Amino acid sequence: MMKKQRVLLIGAGRMAQAVIAGLVKMNSTSLEQIIVTNNGNKQRLQSVTDNYHVVAANNWRDEIKQVDVIVLAMPPQAHDELLRELSSYVNGQLIITVAAGIGPSYMEERLPEGTPVAWIMPNTAAMIGESMSLYTVGKWVNSQHQLVLELVLKGIGQSQLCTEEEVHHLTAITGSAPAFLYYFSESLIDSAKKYGVEEDVAKQLVIQMIHGSSLMLKKEGNPTSLREQVTTPGGATAEGLNVMNNYHFLKMMEEAIDATNKKAMGK
Q1: Are the CB atoms for 196 and 129 separated by under 8 Å?
Q2: What does the pLDDT look like over 179-202, one tens digit per residue?
Q3: How many domains does the chain have?
């Protein structure tokens, strides 16, 4: 049985708040306390503690010894310095990062040998508990650590265990692709407006179309079949798809995904 966990989050941005909201929602008997710290933004820290009734800390260094889990919820570029400083404080705590490009091997190189680490790559739907999160673990993660990870992951949505290499390659698919979808949505809204439709109406039409389509996709699980159901050979939809093919839509998406992954890996 897992002992009650004390969790420290370093960072209080959107993803940190998603993790906190998920843990609070789980209402697990395995959680003893959630502590959050956010250097330089006391107003945000106060807002988080007011909204989720967690404990605020001014300095993470003062909290390290009393916690079991540390969640790093900060930009990738802040990790190198923080991990090197953390190495002087940690003593077996599970270290989890939710930053793009920061895999277990990166963390293990900068932390004491034997430190259990994990990398979770959620997407923005974590804010409503609907993320599709990828995750991978380091060499010293045991079954008890896995239980803690499951608690965090269930609070923000669904998850898939991967190798570190797979998370690097799939980050664009699950983490960045929502932005691609939102961009596509913007283009549809703009197209509707060009035909004289009011913006609020255009948004309502597009958002409901995407919502309904995504529910069908989740139910059927076969995008090819669904596309074919909508596409009458030689019809209007087919004509639109032909234009997308002529503009090499699939190639464009492949290049967008490759560029996103390279950037996330610092290439």
Answers
A1: no
A2: 999 999 999 999 999 999 999 999
A3: 2
